Amino acid sequence: MKSKLAIAAMLAAGLALPASAQDKIKLVDVIELSGAGATAGTNFKNGADLAVADINAKGGILGKQVEIVHYDSQTNPGNTRAAVQRGIDEGAYAILGPVFSGPIAASMQISQRAETAQIVAGEAAGFTKQGNPYIFRTSLSQAAAMPKIAKYLKDTVKAGSVAVVWVNNDFGKGGRDAILPELEKAGIKVAVDVATEQGQADFAADAIKVKNSNADAVFVYLNEEESARFLRAAKQQGITKPMIGETTLLGAKVLELAGDAANGVRGHVGLSTDAPIPALQEFGKRYREKYGFASDHNGIKGYMAVHMVKWATEKQKKIDRKGLADTLRGATIKASEEPGILMDTVIEQNGDLDRESFLAEVIDGKQVINTTLPRIKP
Amino acid sequence: MSAPATTNDLSRPRGRALPGLIDGTLVTLLLGAAILWFAPVGMGRYGTYVLSLWLVMSIAVMGLNLTLGYAGLKSLAQAAFMGLGAYTTALLTTKLGVSWYAAFALSGLLTFAVGIVLGFPALRVKAHYLAFVTLAFSTLIWLILRNEQWLTGGVFGISNINRPDFFGIKLFGALEFHRFVVAVTLILAVAQWWLIRSPWGRAFTALRENPIRAASLGIDTRAYTLLAFAIGSAYAGFAGALYAPLVEFIDPSPFSLSQSFFLLLMVVAGGAGYLLGPFVGALLGVVLPEWLRFAGSLYLIIFASIVLLLLIACPQGVSGLLERGWTKLTGRRGGTR
After folding, report:
1. What is the DSSP secondary structure assignment for residue B68, as one 8-state letter?
2. Could you tell me if A56 and A49 are in contact, meaning their C-beta atoms sit under 8 angstroms apart?
């Protein structure tokens, strides 16, 4: 009986939670540091850390230093929810992250209930359509990017048929569901529709399917590591048709992992440290110096997210949690006013963003931007 | 297996509350529930949420403990059963407007029925063959959850799952829902406590220890194996029915094969075959990683090391370790298992 009581005593040992109320602006970054989203999450974390270091070196926000803590979401909805709740309980001024849309969907009600802005790195179309006024993006959504891809396939690549390769998770499925109607509108036939798995190692079978479809071009919409594996498999199978992608396919991590196989890949890029914007290139340089590898778009998102908080706080001239979201909603942040935002950004009422984006090609293992596309609503 | 029926089951041991029937485990359960009822006061919603999540996982682990710890069947489908329960509840409450209580009961019934159907192979195959059957089932469920988008929402999941009322009391707040979870967990835990002490429970244990002897003593091994598996699966269904409104969002990822392994780990680490083992195991699996967050990026490595060392030092899990320690201290055996 007493052994049971001993177990009970252990079970009853409550959670000792540190409660800190310091004279700092506290940001809580809930981000994928393990699990399927670790590559994206680590980039975002580093970008946010770099931004906080920059801001603190220049005297903070409204004279207060910024403190940032990172909680690993394990790319798991339940854990993300716990971590966001923890951030809110600890009095976070704003929540940053996560990247994957499942975890975003599981946690966004928490920040909404607490009337706290949640600035996420997700690109899936759905979560800004639910009328949550506290959710903000740091990049274009799939819904905004896919029409640009379809137009590019039609006008520049001049493809009559396209093989669509996508990863069967919320990101890939969302992108695939967004591009298919756009392709139809552009009069492009889908030669083959290939679903692949998250974390898939061998893409030979998929590459053969794509090759046999004889499509004029291949649209690849996978996460970073899978993109690299697919490109290698496609090269082995001798696919010579143009490989077209959206941001991830041309990301720094993909170029590093795919090596030669990435050469010739083209596509639309929402954010890139190679863009012809000095602030972005400067950020890319400093990121590489600090962390020893090139930042992908998620690193830029992390940097921007912190500066969105800075801009809005200085705009409202007070530390007001609810006011922060109110100020961000519908705002236009100009890089001339807030250099940390890196490029002019328009925030729409639902948290979607509108800004310039780029068309790029991979030449000799490097991403080369050849065209800057205007904003959707100039 | 509806909630009122379960309550009736409980009233029986309570009605016959002879001193001999009350043991340390029951006292611990009641005491633990009382502590957990008040524990979250002043803890903040995060702490409360983690405690609730712990209890919900404990229910799923309790089910697996019955299957593995008492009946000795190695199942790799517990998370899939939990998913079945979670999706049943989520779909019934969000799409059809069914009350949570009915959905909870139906989730349990459905997982019980599926458990029986899947349990049939358990009559013919044992050990790792059974593990393969359940592994295939787990993958099948995961694929259905992910690919049948018209029904399950596919990879986008189901959001805005409502929390139930309790006789007009809204349970939207973290504390109110936590107390609700404590009550449901207590009911299910006491039901299992009663079950283990019943002739059924004795038969389960006999099956695990020596199936041939059990059969020769007149135990219908076929029926009992099936029953143990189905009840264990129903517990996973109940856990899922609580998980959905707790997180208010579900997608297929928490019900994948790796989660089934994780639940298995919780049973073994907590102590298979101990009634309180699941609570300790889920504490290790759910609460310990949250505690270790102060260690920053190293926390998962530390977590893995702790579990590894624990299993090397004590294959019977934490409950076994505590029992051994207690026996050494007092020179006599602790309470009944």
Report:
1. I
2. no
Total domain count, chain A: 2
Only one residue has tokens 């591009």, namely A179
Kindly list the residues from chain A whose CB atom is less than 8 angstroms away from the CB atom of residue B335: 1-4
Q: Using 50, 70 and 90 to split pLDDT, how confident is the model at B335?
A: very low
Domain ranges of chain B: 3-256
**Better pLDDT: B218 or A116:** A116
Residue with more model confidence, B126 or A377: A377
Which band of pLDDT confidence, cut at 50, 70 and 90, is reported for residue B122? low
A236 and A315 share a domain?
no
Q: Note the pTM of the prediction, 2 decimals.
A: 0.84
Residues in chain A: 378
What b/e readout covers B12-45, taking b as 16+ CB neighbours within 10 angstroms?
Answer: ebeeeeeeeeebbbbebbebbbebbeebbeebbb
User: CB-CB: which of B45, B293, B299 is closest to A85?
Assistant: B45
In a domain, A2, yes or no: no
Does residue A287 sit in the same domain as residue A234? Answer: no
Amino acid at site B219: I
- A335 and A349 fall within a common domain: yes
The alpha carbon of residue A129 is apart from the nearest alpha carbon of chain B, in Å, by 13
Q: Is residue A16 part of a domain?
A: no
The single-letter DSSP state of residue A295 is -
Tell me the shortest Cα–Cα distance from B334 to chain A, in angstroms: 6
A369 lies in some domain:
no
Chain A residues in contact with B31 by the CB 8 A cut-off are 5, 8
Residue A13 in any domain: the answer is no
Contact A14 B323 (CB under 8 A): no
**End-of-domain residue from the set A242, A269, A296:** A269
My answer on whether A113 and A213 are in the same domain is: no
Residue A16 pLDDT exceeds 70: no
Neighbours of B323 (CB within 10 A): 22
- Can you tell me the distance from the alpha carbon of A59 to that of A50, in angstroms, rounded to the nearest whole number? 15
All residues of chain B having their beta carbon less than 8 Å from the beta carbon of residue A4 are 24-25, 27-28, 276, 334-335
Q: Which of B53, B58, B38 is nearest to B276 (CA)?
A: B58
pLDDT digits (tens, 9 = 90+) for B103-113: 999 999 999 99
Interface of A with B in 75-114 (CB under 8 A): 75-78, 81-82, 85-86, 88-90, 101-102, 105-106, 109
A246, A269, A292 - which closes a domain: A269
Per DSSP, what are the bridge partners of residue A96? A29, A119
- Cβ contacts of B172 on chain A, cutoff 8 Å: none
Asked whether the beta carbons of A149 and A140 are under 8 A apart, the reply is no
Among A7, A90, A105, the residue with its CB nearest the CB of B322 is: A7
A121 plus A56 within the same structural domain: yes
Partner B, chain A 30-49, Cβ-Cβ below 8 Å: 33-34
Residue range A25-41, pLDDT digits in tens = 999 999 999 888 888 99
Do A152 and A204 fall into the same domain?
yes
**Domain coverage including residue A330:** 25-140+278-356
pLDDT digits (tens, 9 = 90+) for B40-87: 887 888 999 999 999 999 999 999 999 998 888 889 999 999 999 999
Please indicate, yes or no, whether residues A135 and A52 belong to a single structural domain of this protein. yes
Asked if pLDDT for residue B130 goes beyond 90, the answer is no
CATH number at residue A146: 3.40.50.2300
Residues A262 and A246 in one domain: yes
